[in-house]
Amino acid sequence: MKVDNFRLQLGNKEYIPIVIGGMGVNISTTELALAAEKLGGIGHISDAEVCYVCDQLFKTSYTSRKRKKYSYNAGNPDKSEEYFDLEEVAEAQKKYVEHTISQKSGNGAIFMNCMEKLTMRNSSDTLQVRLAAAMDAGIDGLTLAAGLNLRTLDLIKDHERFHDVKIGIIISSLRALTIFMKRAVKLERIPDYIIVEGPLAGGHLGFGPDDWKTHELHAIVNEVHKFLKTQNLNIPVIPAGGIFTGTDAVNFLKAGASAVQVATRFTITKESGLPDKVKQHYLNAEHEDIVVNTVSPTGYPMRMLRNSPVLNYTIKPNCEGLGYLLDNKGKCGYIESYYKALESSQKGQRMKITDQTCLCTGMARYDCWTCGDTTYRLKETTNRMSDGSWQLPSAEDIFRDYRFSEDNHIQKPPHKEKVKS
User: Fold this and answer.
1) CA distances from 119 to 114, 122, 156, 328 (A)
2) Dihedral over alpha carbons 419, 378, 114, 359 (to 10 degrees)
3) 94 located within any domain
4) What GO MF annotations does this protein's record show (predicted)?
5) CB 373 within 8 A of CB 288
6) Quick one: which of 269, 312, 321, 374 has the fewest CB in 10 Å?
7) Does any domain span residue 147?
8) pLDDT band at 418 (very low <50, low <70, confident <90, very high)
9) pLDDT digits (tens, 9 = 90+) for 151-164
10) Whether 93 contacts 137, CB under 8 Å
11) Cis (ω within 30 of 0) for the bond into 165?
12) pLDDT tens, position by position, 235-250
C-alpha cells in the first residue's frame, strides 16, 4: 500500500496527504512550499523573523531601521524600551505571504506556521498582527505552534476570515490539546486539523527537558484519536516527527491518521533555504552527532547537530535589530547569560556561555542546525558524488518518494554528477 492510496479531506477540498512542515528561519522557503502545493499536497512557510526574511528576499530595510532606532540601547541589558513597529510587521507579513500565494500553480495549499513563543517584546499584539496580516494576504491555513495557544483564537475571532481560513494546532500531548479545545469550543471554532508532533522531531520539542525520552508518537496519536471519538469530533489528525519513509507514513494512515507532516528529508533539497554547505553537514551527520539541549531562551529543549555554530556563540545580543524572543518585559535568557559571562570573564581569556544561546542571530545566520532524530539517515536518500559531496535532491524527488514508495524502499534521485568547470 502507498501514501497515494489515501487522501486528506479539509472542508470541501482533497489533498495528497503529505504536509511539509514550516521550518524557520526561511528553511521552508516559498519555493519549498510551492513544490508541495504544485503536487497537490500542503506546504508551510514560517513567519519566524518575518521582517528579517523580507529584508533578505525583497531588499527591504525593516531590521536596519529598527536597529538604528534603538542603537542608543545596544549596551544596555534592559531591552524594555525596544518594540517592533506593528505596522511594519503587518506590512512584512503581507508582503511575504502575497509573494508566496501569488505563485500557486497546483491543487494543493499553502499554510503558515505561526509560533506563539515568538514573543517579540509584545507577545499578544505582535501575534495578532502576524495572524491577521497572513489572512489579509490570502494564506490558505494557519498552523498555531510553539505553545499552548490558549488565547490565540481570541486574537482573530473578529477577523472576517476567522471561519474561512483553515486553522490547525501543533500539540505534543493530549493534555495540551484538551486545554486548547476548551477555548475553541467556547468560541465555536473547532480546529480544522491537529498536528501531533512527537519526540523525534527537529527544532523545539513540546516536552520537558527529559520527558521526550519516554514518549512515542504512535501512542500520543492513539490517545488523541480516542479523545476525539469520545467527544464525537471528526478532526483530521496529522502525525509528525520521525516519519522517514512512505511506509512509515502508510502505517499512520492505516491506523487512522488523515495525513503526515514531514520535514527532515526536505532540509537537504535544492529548494530548502539552508546554505548548500550546511546541507552537506546534515548529510554527513551520524546519529551521535544529533543532540537535544536546553540552550534555547524559550525554555523548550531543542534537537540540533552538535557542531552547530550557535552552540559556541559569545556574541553580543542583537535585540536592537532582531529581538524576536524578548518577552513582555524586554528580557531574554541569553541577555542575562551574556552579561553574567562578560562580568566574570578574565582579561585575555575567551568568554564562555554554555547555558543559553542567541537564537535570533543563530537562526538568521543559519548557524542553528536544528534537525530531526532521523537526520543521520539522509545519506540513504541520495547519491554520493565523486568529490565526496552528496547530490541535493529536489523537493519533487522527495515528495514523490513519500507518495509512491512501498516496503520501506527509498527511491534516490537520478544520479547527476557535477560538471567540473
Assistant:
1) 11, 6, 17, 7
2) -90
3) yes
4) dioxygenase activity; nitronate monooxygenase activity
5) no
6) 312
7) yes
8) low
9) 999 999 999 999 99
10) yes
11) no
12) 999 999 999 999 999 9
Within 10 A of 59 (CB to CB), how many other CB atoms are there? 7
pTM of the model: 0.95
Distance CA 32, CA 108 (A): 13
CB count in 10 Å sphere of residue 385: 13
For 8, the grid coordinates are 486528506
Q: Supply the DSSP symbol for 307.
A: T
Task: Specify the number of domains making up the chain.
Answer: 1
Distance CA 106, CA 266 (A): 19
Residues 6+ apart with CB under 8 A from 218: 239, 252, 255
d(CA 251, CA 402): 12
Q: Could you give the CA distance from residue 304 to residue 368 in angstroms, rounded to a whole number?
A: 7
Which of 410, 412, 420 lies closest to 386, judged by CA? 420
- Domain of residue 162 covers 3-272+393-404
Give the amino acid at 233.
Answer: L
| CATH code, domain carrying 204 | 3.20.20.70
392 vs 268: CA distance, rounded Å = 6
Q: What is the pLDDT of residue 421?
A: 45
The grid cell for 404 is: 509512491
* One-letter amino acid for residue 122 of the chain: N
Neighbours of 310 (CB within 10 A): 22
- Asked if the structure places residue 204 within a domain, the reply is yes
Q: Residue 201: exposed, middle, or buried by beta-carbon count in 10 A (0-12, 13-18, 19+)?
A: buried
CB 63 within 8 A of CB 55: yes
Q: For residue 311, what is the enclosing H or E element?
A: none
**63 residue type, one letter:** T
How far CA 261 is from CA of 12, 100, 129, 281, in Å, comes to 20, 20, 26, 23
